[in-house]
Amino acid sequence: MMTSVDTELIRVLADPLRLRIVTLLARETLCTTHLVEETGAKQTNLSNHLRVLREAGVVETEPCGRFTYYKLRPDVIAQLAGQFTELAASARTAAENKRACP
Fold first, then answer.
1. How far apart are CA 100 and CA 76, in angstroms?
2. What are phi and psi of 78, to 5 degrees?
3. CB burial of residue 59 (10 Å; 0-12, 13-18, 19+)
4. What is the pTM of this model?
5. Which of 7, 39, 92 is nearest to 50 (CA)?
6. Is the pLDDT of residue 2 over 60?
7. If DSSP codes are grouped into helix, strand and coil, which group holds residue 88?
8. Four-point Cα dihedral 77, 82, 83, 89, nearest 10
9. What is Dmax (Cα atoms) for the chain?
10. Mean of the pLDDT values across residues 8-29?
C-alpha cells in the first residue's frame, strides 16, 4: 500500500507553464521554437522551465541540426498516475476505517 506521492515531481508539474509544456509534448515532439510559439513565453524563460523538466526526468532531448527537440517521457507520467491511483484506492479503503476519539 502506497502512502505518498512523488512530491518533487508534483512540484515540478505544478507550475502552469511547465504543465502547459508537458501537455503540448504529450501530443508531439517539439523544438524550443515551436514551444515559444505555442506558449508565448520568452525563449530564456522557456529554456529554464525545460531544464527543470529535463532534470526531473519528465522530458528528454533529441538534437537535430541546430535545433533541440523535446519529447515527453510517458513512463514518468504513468508512474505518477499509478501513485495517485494507489492513493485513491487507499482512500477508498480508509473511508471505512474510523479512529475512535479518546
1. 39
2. -65, -40
3. buried
4. 0.83
5. 39
6. no
7. helix
8. 150
9. 68
10. 95
Per-residue model confidence as pLDDT tens digits over 23-74: 999 999 999 999 999 999 999 999 999 999 999 999 999 999 999 999 999 9
C-alpha 95/C-alpha 69 separation (Å) is 45
Q: How far apart are CA 67 and CA 98, in angstroms?
A: 57
**What number of other Cβ atoms are within 10 A of residue 18's Cβ?**
21
Q: Which three cell numbers stand for residue 93?
A: 479503503
CB 80 within 8 A of CB 6: yes
Cell 499509478 belongs to 82
Beta-strand ranges (E) seen in the chain are 30-31, 59-64, 67-72
